[in-house]
């Protein structure tokens, strides 16, 4: 019987190949949403830290 698997990382393939899986779907909508949220948070944190540094410099003046 042929089986397929959803995998989030290509490093998972060898194990699934050994177990006989023959179809692989890489990643998922959930993964894309998680990555987007993570990128958005990183961008926000970077912007916020620049803003805090600017405010801090202005307060010292």
**Number of β-strand runs:** 2
The secondary-structure class comes to alpha+beta
Approximate strand percentage:
5-15%
Estimated helix fraction = 55-70%
How many structurally independent domains? Answer: 1
- The first-to-last residue Cα distance is 73 Å
**What form results from the Cα inertia axes?**
rod-shaped
| Average residue pLDDT | 81
Q: What order do the SSEs take from the amino end to the carboxyl end, as H and E?
A: EHEH
Strand order of the largest sheet: 1-2
Rg over alpha carbons: 21 Å
Number of helices: 2
Unreliable spans are none
Largest sheet: 2 strands, parallel
Question: Which labels suit this protein?
Answer:
two-stranded parallel ribbon, 62% helix, alpha+beta, 61 residues
């Amino acid at each position: 019987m042929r089986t397929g698997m959803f995998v989030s990382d290509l490093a998972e393939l060898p194990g699934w190949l050994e177990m006989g899986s023959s179809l692989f779907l890489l990643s998922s909508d959930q993964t894309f949403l998680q990555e987007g949220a993570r990128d958005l948070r990183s961008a926000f944190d970077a912007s916020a830290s620049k803003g805090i540094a600017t405010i801090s410099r202005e307060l010292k003046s």
